[in-house]
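[Automated response] Your request has been received and processed.

Submitted sequence:
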Amino acid sequence: YNYNMSPELLKFHLNSIHDTAHTPANMKLWKYSSTAKCLLCGWKNCNLKHILTGCRAALDGKRYNWRHDQVLRVICNTLLEKLETKTSRPKKKGWMVFK
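Generated structure:
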């Protein structure tokens, strides 16, 4: 597990796990807003699940594609770093043994 998170990422992580993110649905629940409507598509209950996976306007606007590509970029860069450090180690010279 990666504990080297930025404070912003840690805050998002904890808020998303405990459903305490400042979504329109939570803002209405906490009485900071009069509506829980999604600002992009008008869905009546804009909770975290809707924002991350269910907003039709975000899907049509390729927002999910962008986020998906960003995740893949992080995975790819991490794998490349691991491969580079693994291949940069000096190789041991030894004899091949055949049985």
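Summary generated for your ticket: The longest helix spans residues 63-87. The two ends are 42 Å apart (CA to CA).
If you did not submit this request, please reply to this message.
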